[in-house]
Design goal:
The protein is mostly helical. The protein has helices spanning 2-23, 28-38, 40-49, 53-83. It has four helices and no strands.
Length: 86
């Protein structure tokens, strides 16, 4: 379920970047690929580059914080699996 949500979110971000990048003279193929692979971070950088800096920085910072929290949780899960639950 969580993987499906992330995939759907990346597809929505990709569609937005492809459609919106044409308005600003940016490459839709490049931003589509970046949006699909990097998701919210690419969206934040795109917003910054198209002079929507405040919302761009907010999206970028929140997505980086989310990725850091995710990596910490995965690290803790691996640590618990290795050390055991005792």
């Amino acid at each position: 379920m969580e993987g499906t949500f992330g995939l759907v979110l990346n597809i929505i971000i990709t569609i937005y970047l492809v459609v919106d990048s044409k308005k600003y003279g940016k490459s839709p193929v490049l931003w589509g690929i970046l949006g699909f692979v990097f998701g919210a971070i690419a969206l934040g950088i795109y917003l910054i580059k198209t002079d929507r800096k405040v919302i761009g920085w907010i999206v970028t910072i929140l997505s980086i914080i989310g990725y850091i929290i995710f990596m910490i949780l995965v690290g803790l899960a691996i640590l618990l699996a290795i050390a055991g639950f005792a």
